[in-house]
Amino acid sequence: MARYAMVIDLDRCTGCRACMEACKVENNTPQAHFWMYVFRFEEGEYPNTRVWFMPRPCMHCDNAPCIKVCPVGARYKRPDGLVATDFDRCIGCRYCEVACPYGVNYFNWKKPERNHYIDWTDREAGAVLDPVTNGAVPPYKNPDLEKPYGPERRRIAGGGHLKGVIEKCTFCVHRVERGQQPACVANCPLYALHFGDLDDPGSRVSQLLRRRPHFRLLEEAGTQPRVYYLGGKPPGEESRQIEAVRARV
Amino acid sequence: MKISRRTFVKGAAAAGGAAVAGRVIPRGLETLVAAQRTTAPAVTEEWVPTTCWIGKQDCGMLARRINGRVVKLEGHPGNPLNRGTLCPKGVAQIIAVYDPHRVKAPLIRTNEKGIPGRWRQATWDEALDLVARRIREVRAKDPKLLVWQKGRSKGKAFYDEAFVKASGATKLHHGAFCSDAGYRACEYTVGMSGVLHPDFRHTRYLLAWGWNATNAGGNQLCWITWPQQLVAARERGLKVVVIDPRLRGAGPFADEWLPIRPGTDLALALALCHELIRQGTVDRDYLARYTNAPYLVAEDGFFLRVNGKEQVWDATQGTARPVDAPGVTPALEGAFTVGGRNVRTAFQVFREHVAQYTPEWAAEVCGVPAEAIRRVARELGEEARIGSSTVIDGVTLPYRPVAIMAYHVSQQELGFQAVRAMLMVMMLLGAVGAVGGQRVDVGGWSVHENFEKLDQIEIKDPPYNIYLKDSKYFPINSNNSAVVARVMLNPDKYGVKDRPEVLIVHMSNPLVAFASQPDLIESYKKFKFVAVIDPWLSETADYFADVVLPAATIEKYEGPSKASDQYVDGVALRLPAMKPLFQSRGDIDIYLDLCEKAGILYGKGGYLDHLNQALKLKAPYLLPLDRKPTVRSIFDRWARSEGISEGVAYFEKHGVKVKGPIPPEKAYGYATHPPFGGVRHRLYGEALLRYRQEMRQRGAAPLYWQDYTPLPTWRRPTMEESPARYDLYLISYKMIEFKQSRSSFIPLLAELAPKQRLDINPQAARQRGIRNGEEVWVESHNALTGETRRVRVPVHYTEAIRPDTVGLPHHYGLWSHPGVREQGPTANALYFTGEGYVANTADQSFHVKVRVYKGEER
């Protein structure tokens, strides 16, 4: 059984946010939901200014607060380490959203099919698009996301499923189970993101963690994240966010 | 009935409350749910290779197609440009492909121009007939009155070459808004067509000069390719010095930031030249053997010529000899007397010329500490390792691991000379064409025809053409569409007789993308007929198109596109992953039909004939000139001509053909046979002096000839003559989220950065009583005409910019797409063009003095 983790190399990240878009298209998250988010930071005063960037997915914590507070067992930890959300079971109480110190939970306030950027019900366009897309909303809807995954056979992949439930980064469970990398990792133009099995000493993530100093976010919170950062440093009080993406959650 | 959580809970009340929280129920539910999902529908999954449509360099993509529906675009792992990855635009373009607001059918305008358009849909036949008729009419008068304006050409052979040649149209491009001042400088100086980039695999010290590494391209290539090489080089210990008024572009990759005053890059480069000479870190061998540095210059500033031959001072023989005399040992420095004339070597002239450009002097001009300039010069001198060599693929070559990355920084008033001076820094170090050193053309070291052409320009008498080619105004001329706009509004002033009548705009949105917007809008009113080829109703089309022809995006064959990252060469094609949506058509299809209807498709000199040449088709695959081919068959002939026996089917399967590593003989100037293509690099620009004198003689104003100097010479940019209250410099920049002015309506991208903003240093903002996020007026001033322009925009505090500088990104200022809601103005509404705001090569300047204020005070 694998023990998955993600390693993020801050010395390589250019803050392009391609990972945010790759996640979004792969997982069909609705407007304002950014499971992968990239912070753009500025520190210091002119001319001693510093600019750096930090991608932040769900931490898939080993000691996850979100799992403890879920009243219905919708949020659970898989043996491979992924923290999953069964969207059939979720009742939308949002306790996980409150409990998570990383702020990675997103609540579907709207019907997702009406929250995908464009009014896809436009009739004139629909006449042409529907035969091509089979009426899928959004047109790039990923058919892998409706299926159940894992030996537990739960529906835990992708976003934009139901109004009134919470969704978050799944480490692209639907891809991982096929032997692929999460979409953000696979797409990163600078190869700043890595994903793999910590129990395999030859895996990229194991090698990187052996060779380079690393840290995790909010170590003091005791959440035991499965996301490790190489290079750079944790953001502190001196780090100001610039160019924030406004999530209308 | 499908049992969901909700339906179960509705029915569970009877089962008892205790069961709700428990784990007992799920097992039963799962069994029921699992039972419902035993039969899965058959799924066909295909991965279709294609190339990105949205950006500059056609990164390789794979389209994931499930049951005929494209669900995602991913990077093609085999393409050297992007190696399996995509930038945010590439990832997001899928929503643009399916955009219901694409132009769905050819549109014909029903109202007047200069205001938002009202349209009626037409058939392709009607629309193409209309455009073809106008082409025929204007060609019968004079083909030059037909103007073809491109933005991004995704198929040079088909559009820029075959169509332009077959129609005889006047071709306008985007280079003057891009980096062409740099191209002209490098073409003239070393014969390479490009600006400046490093041999990344071996560079150890890089001057990132105005390079927006985290958001934009760099020399010639687009994003992804350069940052990949930068980051790999950093892991090998590359040191990066950032020279830029703004740090944001360099991100975390700056070891040092020299926050230079906008418009003073020439001064800094001259000071670096000064220091390198003063410290003696100069590659004398390179200068003496491969440049015109040893040529003897007479007092009139021209080379001493004997029997038409340039002369050098033979140090051994103590006499002047022809430069190509056998066994000659030229002196690099010195003043001599030859035949009663006082002469100096060009290098001597240069050395004396830069004596005034001390680091202290530059510190005043550039706002960069003298100590830092001195230190960088020292580091350059050390890191260059002058005299050392190394072996690459068995070839021993000079090793000079220092270089500059520069591209769009060339587009400023002094840009031509600034890039010349930057190149001269690298020439002094002997880094040009060396291992780890300065490169110019990603394609390799082959001498461009402009090396001779730019040296032998004959300035003609008027009448001049619409972009003033070979004129006394811009002898070296990058062809600037904004200058064209000025000329169209006042042709008599420039000695232009005929105003063009018909305009075809292809993949371009000049009204937003080009500076300056007001001039362009006014000039477009003068065109009698405008056809726009575009997948969307661009702002240019909205205001001025008579006909809009909807082009497809990725749903077409197009190319061929170069897939070279400077180390590995390849070629790719765009292939359709789906049929064109709505009634859009591939651009090449459009041109074939248009040419047929305009009577220029067939026969000798027709579109097909020129296409044979442009695509370098070989027998037996040449296109017959008497029948219209399918687009796919053209690419099949091209592929076979390239020696790919499977033809276009190869690309339909693989997407990209990797030709292999570029050998040192092609990549390094020193390794070509003969070295540097056998040309002498022009440290001294004699022709520039000749043009200067002739321009003066013909009565051109100083403004046009003052920067035609044989050696780069500092002067205060014209914008500095604006009144003191215009106390800020406006610069502009690109964002990684968007591409030119054709993307900020795309919802997935717009979500990341929905609004325009003005970058301002908090100190500067507070001095003016402006809070972060507050809306302000930004007002620009034309130092020559006194005209002012202003826009309203919210500010964005950042410590990563000089206090005397504000920055606006491009990409905004759209209004046409329904998805765009008050995103804010384009920077091009503030920039001026023409005198004082273009370079001596007609290249556009993206600098202007502005003031920033709240409220209505003026």
Write up this protein.
Chain A is an alpha+beta fold and 249 residues long. Chain A is built from seven helices and eleven strands. Chain A has helices at residues 18-27, 65-69, 95-99, 123-133, 173-176, 183-187, 204-211; strands at 4-9, 37-43, 50-56, 75-77, 83-85, 106-107, 166-167, 193-197, 214-215, 227-230, 240-241. In chain A, the strands form four sheets. In chain A, strands 8-1-10-9 form a four-stranded mixed β-sheet. A three-stranded antiparallel β-sheet of chain A has the order 3-2-11, with no helix packed on it. The model of chain A has no long low-confidence stretch (mean pLDDT 96). Chain B is 29% helix and 18% strand. Chain B is built from 28 helices and 33 strands. Chain B has a seven-stranded mixed β-sheet. Chain B has a six-stranded mixed β-barrel with strand order 28-32-29-31-30-33. In chain B, strands 11-10-9-20 form a four-stranded parallel β-sheet, with helices on one face. At the A-B interface, helix 1, strand 3 and helix 4 of A face helix 3, strand 3, helix 4, helix 8 and helix 27 of B.
Helix content estimate of chain B: 25-40%
Unreliable segments of chain B (pLDDT under 50, ≥5 consecutive)?
1-37
- Strand tally of chain B, please? 33
Q: Supply the helix-strand structural class of chain B.
A: alpha/beta
> Which range best describes the helical content of chain A: under 10%, 10-25%, 25-40%, 40-55%, 55-70% or over 70%?
10-25%
Rounded average pLDDT of chain B: 94
List key phrases describing it.
heterodimer; A: 249 residues; alpha+beta; 19% helix; globular; B: 858 residues; seven-stranded mixed sheet; six-stranded mixed beta barrel; 33 strands; 18% strand
Secondary-structure topology with pairs:
The complex is a heterodimer of chains A (249) and B (858).
Chain A: E1 4-9, H1 18-27, E2 37-43, E3 50-56, H2 65-69, E4 75-77, E5 83-85, H3 95-99, E6 106-107, H4 123-133, E7 166-167, H5 173-176, H6 183-187, E8 193-197, H7 204-211, E9 214-215, E10 227-230, E11 240-241
Parallel strand pairs in A: 1-10
Antiparallel strand pairs in A: 1-8, 2-3, 2-11, 4-5, 6-7, 9-10
Chain B: H1 5-12, H2 17-21, H3 24-36, E1 45-51, E2 60-66, E3 69-75, H4 88-97, E4 107-109, E5 119-121, H5 124-141, E6 146-150, H6 157-167, E7 170-172, H7 180-190, E8 197-198, E9 205-209, H8 225-235, E10 239-243, E11 256-258, H9 265-279, H10 284-290, E12 296-298, E13 305-306, E14 309-314, E15 319-322, E16 335-338, E17 341-345, H11 346-354, H12 359-366, H13 370-383, E18 389-392, E19 395-398, E20 402-405, H14 415-428, E21 438-439, H15 450-453, H16 481-489, E22 502-506, H17 510-513, H18 517-524, E23 529-534, H19 539-544, E24 547-550, E25 558-562, E26 568-574, H20 587-598, H21 607-614, H22 631-641, H23 648-654, E27 656-661, H24 664-667, H25 686-697, H26 702-705, E28 728-733, H27 747-750, E29 758-760, H28 762-767, E30 775-781, E31 788-797, E32 805-809, E33 848-853
Parallel strand pairs in B: 6-7, 6-22, 9-10, 9-20, 10-11, 22-23, 23-24, 28-32, 29-31
Antiparallel strand pairs in B: 1-2, 2-3, 4-5, 4-24, 8-21, 12-17, 13-14, 14-15, 16-17, 18-19, 25-26, 26-27, 28-33, 29-32, 30-31, 30-33
Helix pairs in contact in B: 5-20, 6-21, 7-14, 9-12, 9-13, 9-14, 12-13, 16-18
